[in-house]
């Protein structure tokens, strides 16, 4: 974003500029919500696991065979639909869950109520019901599921390569897809010292010099 902003400024002014940032700066900036809460109130935000600082329910919930993510709110009507799908109509009238503020304040109770329902069925069952109702949701996949996902496979994020010692191995694919210079030529991991000779030759070392380095156990 910084590079794009500087580029736009250069388009307008004709002058480039230096951008200074750090991992520390970015980590502080990424805590925007929690940091702003602290600066405004002086209260230290407590860990919420996968929950959202502003919306409840919003996060990962246990099911019979794993976890799914659910996001619901009253403004979109998804909170009421969630209560009905879970068979927990009483949550709609419980004063501790009356609105988003109360649900955030009583988050442990809210999670307990939701998981009392979600843990009775498998993730796939709940996802089908929630998606049909238009409630934002999704699976929390382990890596065995990740590398079986149709979209992951369609995007070539699982590839195979042949290593001279390890044989055929599976690898994580390239996330960037270039239209003109695709990253399709897979190279196996180099063995120790495999490219030493070629690199030194490219730097101008002669065959005699390389042999001397070998005898002296430099390479």
Question: How is this structure best described in words?
Answer:
- It is built from twelve helices and five strands.
- With 219 residues, it is of the alpha+beta class.
- The protein has a three-stranded antiparallel beta sheet, with helices on one face. Strands 4-5 form a two-stranded antiparallel ribbon.
- It is elongated and about 85 Å long.
Outline of this structure?
The chain is built from twelve helices and five strands. It is α+β, with helices and mostly antiparallel strands and 219 residues long.
Strand fraction: 5-15%
- Helical content band: 40-55%
Poorly predicted regions are none
Largest sheet strand order: 1-2-3
Rg over CA atoms, rounded to whole Å, is 27 Å
* Quaternary status: single chain
| Mean of all residue-level pLDDT scores | 93
What is the overall silhouette? elongated
Number of helices, counting only DSSP H or I runs of 4 residues or more? 12
Rounded to the nearest angstrom, the distance between the terminal CA atoms is: 44 Å
Main beta sheet:
3 strands, antiparallel
Given helix and strand content, the structural type is: alpha+beta
* DSSP, total strands: 5
The helix-strand sequence is HHHEEHHHHHEHHEEHH
